[in-house]
Amino acid sequence: MKPSLANLAQLPCGIRKPAYNRADLSAGIVHIGLGNFHRAHQAWYRHRLFEAGIDHDWAIIGAGVRAGDAAQRDKLLAQDCLTTLIELAPNGKSAEVCASMIDFLPVQEGNAALIAQMTDPRIRIVSLTVTEGGYYIDAATGGFNAAHPDIVHDAAHPDRPVTAFGAMIAALRQRRDGGTGPFTCLSCDNLQGNGAVLRQAVVALARMSDMALAEWIGRTCSFPNSMVDCIVPATGAAEIALAKSFGIDDAVPVTHENFRQWVLEDDFCAGRPDWARVGVTFSDNVHGFETQKIRVLNGGHQVIAAAGELLSLATIAETMAHPQIRALLHKVVGEEVTPHMPRVPGYTPHEYLELVERRFSNLEIADTTRRVAFDGSSRQPGFIVPSIRKALDAGTPVSGLALVSALWARYCEGTREDGSPIAPNDPNWATLHRVAKAARSTPATWLEMRQFYGDLADDSRFADAFSRWLSLIYTSGVTSALAAYSDS
Predict the structure, then answer these.
(1) Boundaries of each Mannitol dehydrogenase C-terminal domain copy (predicted)?
(2) Distance from C-alpha of 302 to C-alpha of 431, rounded to nearest angstrom
């Protein structure tokens, strides 16, 4: 059966249905970036609030700014913006229908519909999941990349923006001029200090065309930092077939693990839902929580993904079943990452590592190594390089982290150990592939990509270890290198 509002009551009895009337909801949030993660995470928290009978004026209106978002919009509108969420717990699967999104705006050149919706005074939060690479960060400096063609366009044509940030600025200009007031800008992406990064993008872009508006945005809007966590695989034929096994013909179902976490700074200039009622943690130390998560979970994914791909292991669970890869994760994170992490309530660093290892080992989660390895040019600098720097500053070992970087370099060479090709898997693949081939004979070449590594090539403690590992990987193979590290 197709999911729709008309069909909700007739859905198979094994599927949990919304315990609220969608007609009672009204929009309070525009969310840009309607991928799987948002629908399994933030939209689910909203869904649970509505089931609790509160905050019905905080429903979601979806939006996108990329041409590819139009296809997602068509699929979701065809099923009244309902999403089938399938929880993949180690002891079994369950399904429910989430109805917290009530519309999906047209995806248009110039983003007129998005700007108009964000201008509506009922919209008090604009949230985003646009991936780590979507914030126009200069990888070498960490600052805003004002020279990017998209940013240059939006600065010159603020009434016809191509970026989400340009659209937000255009809406905020109208809200200021009309006396509506600001909205909260809420990043839900895996970036350390994501609220600060979002503030940087919005205010810096506004400053390029309207200094007074930039000052008003910086003074009146809020940009709370947040930490989000839930493993959400990509949707393909297998996930669509899984939804059908529950008796529901969802074109865009979402599978997810049986774990969620959301930590927020309580800094909302125009109000917020009562998220604490459904398990969201409000904290003044979001940085500590996100450091724990980014260094161990996101960083842990980067530790194992390239090795898994090189050894032709299709899923993260398969990598965890490989003794040497599992040992790599446990030793690198346990000895070179967690000693430099802040302590936060909930888990000790060791307990958190054990939790992540259990989550990665969930055989029900068909999370592919290819998906996790995607966009290493954003994820390695974001999730691995900070741990390298922390260890170097503390004078502690970096050998395992150097091995992780060497595995990424070997991955970007473009072939697995069985000789099969690795299809391009990064927005910067052409550069990465070219440098990786050169690094096969001259390993130091890889670290000279200072847009990703900064000055790490100048530190012999890391650079020498990297060169040794990459040479060993090419001469003896990935498994031998992993074994050599485990035995060291």
Answers:
(1) 285-468
(2) 19
